[in-house]
Design goal:
It is built from 15 helices and three strands. Helix content is 68%, strand content 3%.
Length: 434
Amino acid sequence: MRNLYPGVSFQALTRHSNEGNEAPDIKAFSSPPRPLPRTLSRTRSAPPRAASSVAEALGAAVLYGAAAISMNFINKASLRVYPLPQTLLLLQMGATLLVLLTLQMSRWVIIPPLVPRKAWALLPLTLLFISNVALALVGLQTLDIPMYNTLKRLTPVLVLAAKAAITRKAPECDIASSVLLIVGGCLVAGLGDFSFDLKGYICALASVTLQASYLLLVERSGAEKGVGVAELLVYNAVLSMPFLLVAVVGMGELVQIIPLAHAALASLGAWSCFWLLTANSLLGMLLNYSLFLCTVHNSALTTTIVGVLKGVVATTLGFFLLGGVPVHLLNVAGIAINTTGGTWYTAIKYRKRRRLMQQQALPVVIMSSSPGDALAQHHKAKASPGAMTPALHGDMHDAENPRSSKEAIAAVISTLRLHKNDSAQSLEHMVRQL
């Protein structure tokens, strides 16, 4: 049968999968002019790393927030009984490794074997992590919970500034405004509780800087290097423990463990000490897991915003729990400002995620051969930045503008006429069918 459409073919391109590229599906027209077929080409629209669903992202954020709030008070109570921050952190890493290995033996999780090259690549992440948490524990030991959370809420500003510097692109006005509103509210809330402690301030501010760097790096490690959450936790624990052992010995905590343990047993009793250490170790593991999970399913900035919002709750509870601090009008006003900014930011990110998921659900189609280049260029010119070109399928109607398909084919017809190609008449017939 004579081909009435020489040089014209539609090619449906699939998105990249995790394993690699799938072969494109090519179908050429080789029949006389007739009404447009129902399907011009088979298309597949599954992206390689589809954006996390709203439920997954929200669940990861809620888990991280709940774990972080609980950990504030567990850490504060533990440091009052055992003022050994490096030792407590070492116990948390040991508990993390023990639980994950148990889950792997029970086949609840699958953790690939450790690879030296990957461990070396993740070493900067580990150093940032242990430095951040160690300094945070020292700051929490000397500051009250409301003041500690007030300083820690500066993290989103550093993340936003770092991303703007890396991408050389200023953040959108609404995002920047909501983040600044959150941080401004936190600062106002903390004005009523400025009991100055130089060591606590230095450690908390240094922890803020390291946490911003840590969040950006863990987002890059989980997304671009394909490292899973459980795998990240294992590497983090294995690589952290040697450094923590050196810190425990070098900072003199090793010789204080037994005397402090005897004092804790005498004041609290054996069971209270046991459950306090167990809760500290297991919640530390849960916090690390939820932090990785939230950063993988969300952006680093979203994770820090969740941290800011949980700080509002922790600050409020901190005025009443573990001794408490005086309540001032500035605290209430600051919390209200912070909550407004957090709600605004959440609404912005939700709308952006919905639009992204809708765009990624659309397959991509381009034209192969010389005339097809005109159609591809036409779609490229009409598509907004970041949007995907809708597929030509069904009745050839665009997903958002039904007239764009006719305009695209008209561009091909013009190209064919320039080449004096008799396929122009056939394509005109196709346009009339629309």
